[in-house]
Amino acid sequence: MKKQAGQLEESTKRLFTGTEVGVLLEDIDKKLGILAEGQGSLIKRINKIESKLDATFEMVGEMKIDITMTKIDITAMKNDLETIKKSLNKKPDGDEFKELESRVLVLENKINI
Fold first, then answer.
1. In a domain, 67, yes or no
2. What does the CA dihedral 16, 22, 28, 34 come to, rounded to 10 degrees?
3. Which structural domain range is residue 42 located in?
4. What digits encode the pLDDT tens for the residues 45-94?
5. How far apart are CA 74 and CA 61, in angstroms?
6. In terms of Cα–Cα distance, which of 16, 72, 21, 3 is closest to 29?
7. Is residue 19 a part of any domain in this protein?
8. Could you tell me if 100 and 92 are in contact, meaning their C-beta atoms sit under 8 angstroms apart?
9. pLDDT (tens digit, 9 = 90+) per residue, 6-52?
10. How many Cβ atoms sit within 10 Å of the Cβ of residue 30?
């Protein structure tokens, strides 16, 4: 078995000429150039995505502020509505009642004319 393995190694060993090595190097160089070009394109795309992501994060931050302000406004509106409800449910006191009664009588007299 060792002889067969040794014979296989000897048959696969080969020396390359300078021209062949030059052609291989040119081919490798072209492929590396293509890889570098692709890498440059990917970097540009990643930079665009990063800038869009930064803008998105900024917009989300602004929206959070807007939502917080809206919550504060709604809370104030609820408090105002509660105050209005209480004042509407409040019955007039004696003086207010007498004034309203006299106004109603005046209006009734005008209508009956």
1. yes
2. -160
3. 28-111
4. 999 999 999 999 999 999 999 999 999 999 999 999 999 888 888 777 88
5. 20
6. 21
7. no
8. yes
9. 555 665 677 889 999 999 999 999 999 999 999 999 999 999 999 99
10. 10
> Which residues touch 24 (CB under 8 Å, ≥6 apart)?
16
Residue whose token pair is 């190694």: 9
Which residue is it, tokens 């060993």?
A: 13
Indicate the residue type of 13.
K
Length of the chain (residues): 113
Task: Evaluate whether residue 68 is within a structural domain.
Answer: yes
Tokens 């002889």 correspond to: 3
The pTM for the full model equals: 0.48
Cα–Cα distances in angstroms (integers) from residue 5 to residues 10, 11, 13, 15, 53, in the given order: 9, 10, 12, 19, 59
User: Residue 113: which pLDDT band, with cuts at 50, 70 and 90?
Assistant: low
